[in-house]
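Tokens for Glycosyltransferase family 4 protein. Go.
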Amino acid sequence: MRVHLYNGSLGLVRRSGVGQAFYHQKAMLEQAGVAVTESWDAHADAVHINTVLPDAVFAALRARMRGETVVYYGHSTMQDFRDSFVGSNLLAPLFGRWIRFCYDLGDFIITPTPYSQQILESYHLKKPVCVLSNGVDTDFFAPDPARREHFRREHQLADDQPVVVSVGHYFERKGILDYIELARAMPEVCFFWFGYTEPALTPAHIREAMAVAPGNLHFAGYVDQAALREAYCGADAFVFCSHEETEGIVVLEALACGVPVVVRDIPVYEGWLSDGREVLKRHDVAGFRAAIGDILGGAWPDLAKNGRAAACARNMKALGQRLCDLYRTQGKRPA
């Protein structure tokens, strides 16, 4: 079996969760023994489409003309488009209609969680929506005391300095405003935010809030996966204040690295992450602050171990086999 991972516009989304999902799919397939191509030169049994940009529409139509199964990945919803880029709220209804059109070009749609499946099915799509996690490389993202030491040495942090990390674009949806307030409320803790959004695409009120952020909050910008892994390993807690996700690849990465994780209590985590077992779920800045204090005080000793186990349940090899099963049950031809 051969699968074509369509890489058009990959350069535009490489630094996002969609870009990471592309590389995860490649790893899943290769570990499952599936031949992978990024070229139209050879016939493929299935073509993966990950974006909803205009070129992806032409790719889906081309694949259908060639008789190839189109697997459309439902990474985006109208809900998680809101509160992101400049003008996103105004454009959200149009974006909703556009993604319905795009997703219906697939023979089937894959989305990472039952929550996002429920949202996509509420759009009355004509094609079946299947659930498969984006997964995480639990060999690459893993606990490592040496990486913790290197991160702290690089950032000139004492061994006993409390450190909290988060990752994402400069989006209100990602909870950046709450994260800024959290840092302000805990001046004794060193906070890092990894990720970057072009200023022209960042709403003015976000730029203004960042400009007056407290000195214990460091906007570290975009870093590669190896540096991000060190940040997870070097942190005492990973706090993800996002208001809306279809899964949250960075949450999986942090869990895999064995760092205690605090998330906002939103529906996407229901059924696979439990409060007080794999993560702590809180609603607001006061809750996040209390959760961090509990973690730093040693109140949840099994959180990191249980979180790592949840990430390992979504390792690449297992998900590759499940993806192959979806080809067999949903594709145009047996694998």
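The two ends are 6 Å apart (CA to CA).
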